[in-house]
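Backbone-to-sequence.
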């Protein structure tokens, strides 16, 4: 469909006058004269109001797994809106799409993860995790188990609870976070924190940091460990081999719940339905969002183990938690159709056997660039570390944290949307991306690195 005839200069003026965008420097946005206005999208490409076609190397915000322009999802929403546009799940009620989606998710999660609680965002899902876990331990007769252990540089959302569970200091600086009861330990970021160290030994050290903190605060006080299978917003941190097996064993040893945050990794991103399946562990709770509806409508969920639900049913009483839009029937209908598309088109298998390996090989073309310190990927998520000196992890003096955004801006100018995180750029394209589009991604990144290098070295 062609874009409507929007008055783009007026929209940008109104953007500054009235709209406060997410995670933005508002002074900078005012100086820029407003946001880039995205007016339409198709497949793996977005189009702005100035007529620029931009290959979406970020799948929106880690979420548009089936790509843009899916008429089936539009129809699923319209049909459900006509039949029942909304009803809640508060009054001992449920709607058909909500129940059917919970059943489908239980099938995909498998094993002991047979129950689902719905929310509207990944942040809300992690709020639910925090309250449910603490309620579970109280009902179980161990009310002192309230502490969550997470990792520095982790991202678990933007709400007070989500940002506290996350380990990003710049987020903690806003509002006096983290809230009490959250401990942070080292992340398994080999390039940055274990450069030159045997990778598996580093992974063991990072896992041991979790057990050390458990012992320090007392196992009887720890409720859960939470982590992303691959840290997304932290910079696509892919853990070393054996890390998750060690973490799983530590949690079992001390009777601690394991929460794997699948908000980004779920629904095919790593070449399996969920990241925990790729790494061969079985968590107790699984928050998920983004790819659940491919971003077409807001919806999230928490997969919960049978053991937890058994305690809640027997001893938990009323779980005084939930949202107006928990299990929204239209969002649930779209999520069901989205999962059907992923199944029918074999997108999970495609990532594992086709485009994931092709993406990894294509990225290797950039290994010889003098700015690339490390290139890493898993499935269809990847990162490029930018360094001042080849063969090291040294950053540009006096500009640490600026290289990623500079390369990102060049990529966008050249027609590719990526994200700059400190001194790296990260990518997370739709699962439908073609080989030709991956080639184009790599060409644009290479050209952008060449354009930015003189400015980086001059700083």
């Amino acid at each position: 469909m062609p874009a409507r005839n929007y008055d783009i200069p007026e929209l940008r003026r109104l953007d500054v006058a009235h709209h406060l965008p997410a995670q933005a420097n508002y002074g900078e946005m005012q100086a820029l004269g407003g946001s880039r206005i995205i007016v339409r999208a198709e497949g793996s490409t977005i189009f702005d109001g100035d007529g620029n076609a931009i290959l979406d190397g970020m799948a929106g915000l880690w979420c548009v797994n089936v790509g843009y322009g899916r008429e089936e999802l539009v129809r699923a929403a319209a049909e459900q809106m006509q039949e029942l546009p909304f009803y809640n799940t508060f009054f001992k009620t449920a709607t058909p799409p909500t129940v059917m989606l919970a059943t489908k998710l239980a099938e995909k999660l498998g094993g002991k993860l047979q129950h689902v609680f719905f929310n509207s965002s990944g942040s809300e899902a992690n709020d639910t995790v925090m309250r449910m876990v603490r309620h579970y331990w109280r009902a179980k007769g161990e009310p002192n188990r309230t502490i969550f252990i997470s990792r520095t540089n982790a991202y678990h959302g933007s709400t007070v609870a989500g940002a506290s569970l996350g380990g990003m200091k710049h987020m903690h600086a806003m509002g006096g976070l983290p809230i009490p009861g959250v401990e942070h330990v080292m992340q398994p970021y080999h390039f940055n924190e274990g450069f030159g160290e045997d990778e598996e030994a580093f992974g063991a050290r990072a896992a041991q940091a979790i057990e050390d903190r458990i012992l320090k605060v007392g196992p009887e006080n720890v409720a859960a460990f939470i982590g992303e299978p691959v840290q997304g917003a932290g910079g696509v941190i892919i853990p070393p081999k054996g890390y998750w097996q060690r973490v799983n064993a530590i949690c079992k040893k001390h009777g601690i719940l394991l929460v794997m945050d699948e908000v980004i990794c779920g629904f095919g991103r790593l070449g399996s339905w969920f990241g925990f399946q790729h790494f061969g562990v079985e968590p107790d709770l699984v928050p998920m969002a983004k790819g659940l509806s491919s971003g077409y409508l807001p919806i999230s969920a928490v997969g919960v183990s049978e053991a937890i639900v058994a305690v809640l049913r027997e001893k938990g009483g009323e779980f005084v938690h939930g949202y107006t839009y928990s299990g929204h029937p239209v969002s649930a209908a779209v999520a069901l159709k989205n999962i059907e598309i992923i199944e029918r088109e074999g997108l999970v298998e495609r990532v594992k056997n086709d485009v994931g390996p092709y993406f990894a090989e294509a990225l290797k073309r950039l290994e010889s660039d003098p700015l690339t310190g490390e290139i890493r990927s898993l499935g269809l998520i990847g990162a490029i570390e930018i360094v001042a000196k080849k063969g090291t992890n040294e950053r540009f003096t006096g500009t640490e944290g600026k290289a990623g955004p500079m390369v990102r801006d060049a990529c966008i100018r050249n027609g590719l949307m990526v994200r700059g995180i400190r001194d790296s750029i990260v990518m997370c394209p739709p699962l439908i991306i073609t080989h030709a589009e991956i080639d184009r991604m790599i060409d644009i990144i290479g050209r952008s690195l060449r354009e930015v290098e003189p400015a980086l070295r001059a700083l």
